[in-house]
Amino acid sequence: MIENTALRSSVDRLMPDRTPEEALAALLLDEARRNLVKYRAIDRRFRQKYQTTFAEFRQKVVGADTSFEEEQDYFDWELAVTGIEEMEEEIRNLEALV
């Protein structure tokens, strides 16, 4: 899979007990976990700010006359909630490979 000899050398040096594919999966798993932490922090910040869940906030905002800040928060919060779901699934998939 890894054609570049410099990359293969780095994998051999840094993760000698793993195949290149396992090393890649491990790195991707680390990145997915970092993203999950980031998205959960965003979700937590909005839960504290609005003292509600995203689902309840969505009901309040959709179709209502909201401020620019609330509208922007809605999109940012939706991105975080979607990101949490996607990263949790990605982590499950990658953990099966590592």
Number of DSSP E strands? 0
- What is the rounded distance between the termini? 16 Å
Structure classification: mainly alpha
Described by the principal axes of the CA atoms, the overall outline is elongated
The low-pLDDT segments are none
The average pLDDT score comes to 93
Quaternary: single chain
Number of helices: 4
> Biggest β-sheet, characterized?
none
Percent of residues in beta strands: under 5%
Helical content (DSSP H or I, runs of 4+): over 70%
Structure in words:
Helix content is 81%, strand content 0%. The mean pLDDT is 93. It is an all-alpha fold. It has a domain at 36-98.
In short:
The chain has 98 residues and is mainly alpha-helical.
What does the secondary structure layout of this molecule look like, with pairings?
Blueprint: H1 5-14, H2 20-50, H3 54-61, H4 68-97
Helix pairs in contact: 2-4, 3-4
Question: Main traits of this protein?
Answer:
98 residues; mainly alpha; 4 helices; 81% helix; elongated
